[in-house]
Amino acid sequence: MTTQQQLIFINGEWTQAEHGKTFEVLNPTNGQVIANVADACVSDTKKALQAASDAQPAWAALPHTERVNYLHKIAEIVKTMNDEFTEALVNEVGSWFGKALFECNAVLEEFRTAAAMTYQSTGEILPSANGKTSMLMRKPVGVVSVISPWNFPTLLSARGFAPAMALGNTVVLKPSEESPISGGILFAKACEQAGLPPGVFNLITCSRDNVADVGEELVANPIVKCISFTGSTAVGKQIGARAGGLLKKTCLELGGKDAIIVLEDADIGLAVNAATFGSFMHQGQICMSTERVIVHKNVAKEFTERFVKNVEKLNVGDPWEINKAIGPIVNKKQLEQIIDQVEDAKTQGADVLIGGTHEGPFYHPTVISNVTNDMKIIQNENFGPVAPIIIAKDTEEAIAIHNSSEYGLSSAIITADVARGLEVAAKLEVGMTHINDSTVDDEPHVPFSGVKNSGLGGHGGKASLNAFTETQWVTVTKEPHYPPFFEES
Fold first, then answer.
1. Would you give the distance in Å from CA 83 to the centre of its chain?
2. Measured between alpha carbons, how far is 399 from 392 in angstroms, rounded to an integer?
3. How far apart are CA 405 and CA 424, in angstroms?
4. Strand (E) or helix (H) holding 226
5. CA 349, CA 378: separation in Å to the nearest integer?
6. Which active-site residues does the annotation give?
7. Per DSSP, which regions of 297-399 are E strands?
8. With contact defined as beta carbons under 8 Å apart, do 15 and 8 qualify?
9. Alpha-helical runs (H) found in 317-460
10. Per-residue DSSP letter, 326
11. Sign of CA dihedral 432, 162, 151, 242
């Protein structure tokens, strides 16, 4: 990818940021500049929000079949841009080439599922004790701010704006400063090519220097009726608190400290594969990544030996190479956090069984044992290729260890007894549980949500329907009757 100038997209037009400022986007693999991107300010954001507000009534008034056609057209254009999205995903955020291909295919289903959602945006006929025709009608909230992350920027941006648009809302998207191209600019190009009415989709990009002010505008501006945010718990809490004080709807998908529980009757090969994929896919930089491996004491030795041996096979290097599944950490700050947490664990008695080192931006796949709950590596989200193994004496202790975390996004249970797996799942304080699979799993039509510090509300399926629409009670009365002294004589 050659260095290029990238603009913001407001009301169907490409434009520079108001002050003409730009910021550099760097390739995490080699540190080279990929692009100079418009560094928008609050004034630009207000213009984008106003454009979305002006366009929303006409967009909502379109027959749902017309909105469906636009969504399908955008999906087809995105499909033709597969090489551009893949290149951006690898070069912007160090996505392994295989992961980038998966993400490009998955995003097409996001648009198709969003289009199908228009047929599910139905109301209800309610009973009435007064003989009225009583209805619950569903309508769009209005303007939606979408703030997306860098780790799966293409998929998670689309998950925010596609269903919102399909349901009659207009959007302003702000992708991460790490991934403005794969998370936003290419989508704006697709919307433009699809002939989407001006103002329905608007794009704001900004640097880390401006993100606080731009983010505040995307939350607090009275035009905004709902905020879709995917990112860190710390920022999500700030957005939730701010939006709550303004009585605005939010859809917050935040961090995780996800665990896979390996019970004593588990298929160890299955457990090893699930833990390896869950811990190390995209360098562990996924909200659903397996960040705790809780293993029953009776199978801990066998599992650990086989797990370490499997991790040894993972190759580290240039993510463009299909056999290099472990690419770079996205930036220096994230790398330093991983190093700090592993070093903290070592000083407190944890054993590094493999890895624990890095070369430049590449942190080697790491497995550690003898960890305790008071270590940073267990208390905090790691977001790196590190798998801590925790041994549980029995199933109840495994459940207790799992629930001791302040997070509750995804989980996995490996067991030969599915009924038992369901019993354990019912006791976990978590938004999602996968029996005999990895913690990393998602489908566009399924409500994706967490509990505790992992989020509020959700994306996908009915969760998106509820997030991006409001209900209105409407009645029709044939013969109204009021107390006599309120009626004309």
1. 22
2. 9
3. 16
4. strand 224-230
5. 14
6. 253
7. 351-354, 358-359, 362-363, 366-369, 386-392
8. yes
9. 332-347, 376-379, 395-403, 418-427
10. B
11. negative
